[in-house]
Amino acid sequence: MSDHKRYLGDLIGGSLMIRESQVIADLLLKKLTIEEWNKAIVEHNILQKPSAASAKRNASTIKKRLEGLSSEFLSKLAFSGTEEATQLIFAATLINSTLLADFMRNVFTDAKRMYRESLNVDDWQHFWEERTRLYPALADMTQASVYKIAQVAFKVLADAGYLETTKSKRLMNVYLSPDVRQILITLNRDDIVRAMEP
């Protein structure tokens, strides 16, 4: 996988999908065969999607975000209440997409520090331009893909409670659960804790 794709992660795959992520975390803990996995996703439609294609697409995105995380992380995600589950899947998304983690650590944190009320599309645009200097291949992406990535990024931040809505982009305060912080520290991901505690 090229550097810029690894940096971007599977952000374009969609927003947090909290309930679905809990279901997938539970499936991953069961260590299913490919056949059993497909049966659960397609035949049993465990994610309750309108089509097999969307079920497979969502399952694949979530699986990419959760792969490589500890069984403690997966278990906590699968069986936590909504607030902790939201923080855990947001953490997993930041681990998967260093681009979004950098946005949180740089742009979001700066906005908070400067007591700004909200973010705007220009914040993302300036950040993206700066990143294309570090990862020139990002500049080769289509305008439609770049727009979709920005949309998903703001949707993820709204789903995670860091923005009031994608429309207002008003900055909100989020307090990291001690259990979530501890799991991330155990995984040596202090960088993600910093991204989640601007």
Question: Mind explaining what this structure looks like?
Answer:
By secondary structure, this protein is mainly α. It has helices at 3-8, 18-29, 34-43, 52-66, 71-79, 82-96, 98-113, 121-134, 143-159, 178-186, 190-196. The chain is globular and about 50 Å long. The protein starts with a helix and ends with a helix. The model has no long low-confidence stretch (mean pLDDT 92).
Keywords:
11 helices, 198 residues, globular, mainly alpha
Alpha-beta classification: mainly alpha
Approximately how much beta-strand content do the residues carry?
A: under 5%
The coarse overall form would be globular
Q: Give the SSE order as H and E letters.
A: HHHHHHHHHHH
Residues in helices, as a percent range: 55-70%
What does the oligomeric state look like here?
A: single chain
Number of strands: 0
SS element count, helices: 11
User: What are the low-pLDDT stretches, counting only 5+ consecutive residues below 50?
Assistant: none
Mean pLDDT comes to: 92
Task: Tell me the radius of gyration.
Answer: 17 Å
- Report how far the terminal alpha carbons are from each other: 30 Å
- Biggest sheet character: none
